[in-house]
Write a structure and sequence with these properties.
The protein is of the alpha/beta class. It has a domain of 269 residues: Quinone Oxidoreductase, Chain A, domain 1, CATH 3.90.180. The chain has 18 helices and 27 strands. The strands form seven sheets. Strands 4, 6, 7, 10, 11, 25, 26 and 27 form an eight-stranded mixed β-sheet that branches. Strands 20-19-18-21-22-24 form a six-stranded parallel β-sheet, sandwiched between helices. A five-stranded parallel β-sheet has the order 13-12-14-15-17. β25, α16 and β26 form a beta-alpha-beta unit. α5 packs across α15 and α10 runs parallel beside α11.
């Protein structure tokens, strides 16, 4: 006789007449569901152009809170009137096909498991899952040609039968982390026609850029191109005033090349939100364009180096720390800061044995342990006297970007992972940029990143379950969102949608509240595939 879990995996049983869904009717947590309760909706057969999927696991994400805060004004909802046309949150989903429309009978089979790539594009238009397309905070969902035959093909990635549900679902947020270390930077001018700022006596650099605009080294010369913008701006021996005047003239995806040492020291004011969301770059570190390109090639953590993770106590920050510790040929020293000491203690408990096993020095620092911010910064500098080779900023605070740059070594990169809104300015020392400190940032992930991370999970090269801090059933999803908003847990909250009455609980509570799972957790108390299987067998 098949176990309950085995029958569940086959997905061959009769479907219910209705299903639960947390619909969003407007901005504010009070508009997620009605009176704090999810809706019951009729479950219909999929149309010919649809498939019906069962949501097995959903990871809650801070991005969900952005929709709740903005409602239909969220950029990905394009002004949708949620009061009349509600959506469903949730894009970190592991799903199973339970019914197939006529059009897709040759492509999909009942019982097949998939991971959803949330960034869906169809005929050039974005229809993100959990945004325009109702997402995973429900028991079942419908997908049509937008997701199944979109601009990049099918946005469902096959999952092996033996892979855990939460393992697969959490590949999605992990893909965002992985993408930030896999950026393919443009390391040469696009041409023709970058703006080149040089001394008048050296305008022979026009050779190689025949359509370049050559300006004298004067602010008056820069003012002559007012109202224009460029993909490439090349400045030799820059001054803060020159960079401040030129930086606003960068197009999206544009590069400002800082060639040679700074002619004057001082701060430049940069839109750090534009670095994250518009892929603007400021490249320095060499006396020629070729040397600058060579210095800025690296985009992953330096093997054997020192890595600093600022504000890394939350779920995504812990993923960055875990990646650094699990990475083959990773850093030799990992320093982690956060305002909340308890979150850092969680990192030590969860990842300390891994760091010890890999012979990596793991240091955690919180402001409360020091007499002043200056004392903490002195300690941070003492751990890496020559500067950190890599700094990752995981709290959306402009000052922390400046601090990250000041702590960075020559030819380091500063990963602005926490998205600061476009227009957020930070004062950055120009001389740091000229010694090759590279500021990078990106938003979301690509299907190639998700495919890569899923392969890592299924090859046991990445334990995505280490990210889990709490579990709950679908009925507790509203409470789970509130916990995300209040940062109640140091890691991810995973919703088991098919166990609706499972109460929200931290993993530390599991041994007492569900004793039969006690021995299924890892020695460090982490969630495991075995614990999940026992939970499903017990509760389905």
């Amino acid at each position: 006789m098949l176990t309950k879990l085995a029958r569940y995996k086959k997905a061959a049983g009769p479907l219910p007449e209705s299903y639960r869904a947390w619909q969003v009717f407007g901005a504010g947590l009070e508009n997620v569901g009605r009176a704090g309760q999810c809706q019951t909706l009729p479950l219909r057969d999929p149309a010919d152009n649809e498939i019906l999927i069962r949501i097995d696991v959903l990871g809650l994400c801070l991005s969900d809170m952005k929709i709740i805060a903005q409602g239909g004004k969220h950029a990905r909802l394009r002004g949708r009137d949620l009061a009349k046309d509600p959506t469903v949150l949730g894009h970190e989903c592991s799903v199973t096909v339970v019914k197939v429309g006529n059009r897709w009978e040759d492509r999909f089979r009942v019982g097949e498991r998939y991971l959803v790539q949330a960034d869906i594009y169809y005929q050039g238009v974005g229809y993100a899952f959990g945004y325009m397309i109702p997402g995973g905070m429900e028991e079942y969902a419908y997908l049509d040609e937008r997701a199944l035959d979109g601009d990049e093909g099918c946005y469902l990635l096959p999952v092996k039968p033996e892979t855990g549900y939460s393992q697969a679902a959490l590949a999605e947020p992990w893909a965002c982390v992985e993408m930030s270390y896999c950026l393919e930077e443009r390391l040469g001018p696009k041409g023709p026609g970058p703006l080149v700022v040089v001394d008048e006596v050296t305008d022979s650099c026009k050779v190689g850029f025949p359509n370049a605009v050559i300006l004298p080294r004067s602010l008056e010369g820069i003012e002559a191109i007012a109202g224009k913008s460029f993909d490439d701006i090349i400045v030799r021996y820059p001054t803060p005033a020159m960079v401040n005047s030129l930086a606003p003239k960068l197009n999206k995806g544009g590069n400002l090349w800082l060639v040679g040492q700074a002619a004057e020291v001082g701060d430049v004011t940069l839109d750090v939100g534009g670095i994250h969301y518009e892929n603007k770059r400021y490249f320095g570190g060499g006396a020629t364009l070729e040397a600058v390109a060579a210095v800025n090639e690296r985009n992953d953590l330096l093997p054997g180096g020192s890595a600093l993770f600022i504000g890394a106590g939350g779920p995504m920050g812990q993923m960055h720390v875990q990646r650094a510790l699990e990475k083959a040929k990773g850093p030799a020293r990992v320093v982690v800061t956060d305002l909340d000491r308890s979150r850092l203690d969680h990192i030590v408990k969860r990842f300390g044995p891994l760091a010890e096993e890999k012979n990596i020095e793991l240091v955690t620092l919180s402001p409360g342990e020091f007499d002043s911010p200056a004392a903490m910064e002195e300690r941070m500098r003492g751990l890496a006297p020559a500067g950190y080779n890599d700094v990752v900023v995981l709290a959306p605070v402009a000052f922390l970007v400046r601090q990250a740059v000041s702590l960075a070594a020559d030819h380091a990169f500063v990963n602005i992972f926490a998205g600061l809104v476009i227009g957020t300015k930070a004062a950055i020392p120009l001389e740091a940029l000229c010694r090759g400190v590279k500021l990078i940032g990106c938003s979301g992930s690509r299907i190639s990143d998700l495919r890569k991370v899923l392969a890592m999970v299924e090859a046991n090269e990445l334990d995505s379950n280490r990210s889990v801090a709490a579990i709950a059933g679908l009925n507790a999803a509203h409470e789970g969102l509130k916990a995300v908003k209040e940062a109640s847990y140091p890691g991810k909250t995973v919703i088991y949608t098919q166990i609706p009455d499972l109460p929200l609980m931290a993993l530390e509570e599991v041994p007492e509240r569900i004793p039969e799972l006690k021995d299924k957790l890892s020695p460090e108390g982490a969630w495991t595939k075995e614990a999940e299987a026992a939970l499903l067998e017990r509760s389905l």
